[in-house]
Amino acid sequence: xxxxxxxxxxxxxxxxxxxxxxxxxxxxxxxxxxxxxxxxxxxxxxxxxxxxxxxxxxxxxxxxxxxxxxxxxxxxxxxxxxxxxxxxxxxxxxxxxxxxxxxxxxxxxxxxxxxxxxxxxxxxxxxxxxxxxxxxxxxxxxxxxxxxxxxxxxxxxxxxxxxxxxxxxxxxxxxxxxxxxxxxxxxxxxxxxxxxxxxxxxxxxxxxxxxxxxxxxxxxxxxxxxxxxxxxxxxxxxxxxxxxxxxxxxxxxxxxxxxxxxxxxxxxxxxxxxxxxxxx
Length: 280
Hints:
Number of helices: 1
Order of helices and strands: HEEEEEEEEEEEEEEE
Mean pLDDT: 79
CATH topology of the largest domain: Jelly Rolls
CATH superfamily of the largest domain: Exo-inulinase, domain 1
Number of domains: 2
CATH architecture of the largest domain: Sandwich
Strand content: 35-45%
Helix content: 10-25%
Number of strands: 15
Distance between the termini: 84 Å
């Protein structure tokens, strides 16, 4: 019995020897393969480090240059333009048949800015006549534009308001307030011809003679939107088909007399990427 047991044990050891030999040979092969792959990589890394040290301190890769137009923030209170025709940087135009506009800075004791305002007193004899005061310096697309308006009512066709997106004296968008009818209208002017895009009724604040008109141009995803507010109440919005970079200004029509104060323009960057490089 002892002989048989010893024989069995010796047979098991004998059978295991080829497996152990194969495993040992495989491990040696893997070790040789890994050494062959790692040594060149280590040598390359050492050479790269040496090159970097020879070149000096590592530097950041150059970043993409994003051209950015400085934002516009401008307000005209007309306090420093003592009784001049109109502030510098503007010029007058008249659309349709009518005499040139009379844009002058006058004393208004209850003016929102303090004591001065910009008045336009020249009437237009027809519904196709408009008096314009265009800014020559500022060109922008997305803008928060506002002004305060004082009116002597005149006829129901008398209106005053803001010009924006002006490509020329005959091509622009405008929002006008009509005090005699308590309405606000948005117009598109193409080659000097006005087309009304939208009209809404308004309820003016009765505690003041001055009223606040605001136009807000911005982009929402893939849409460009113009929002109109009157006396701090949202009135309406439109989506122009081809909004472009343009000038701004003031506009009047009819036989009413209007004064303006605190004309304010703030450029917006709603649709522009703010990260560097752009994240989308």
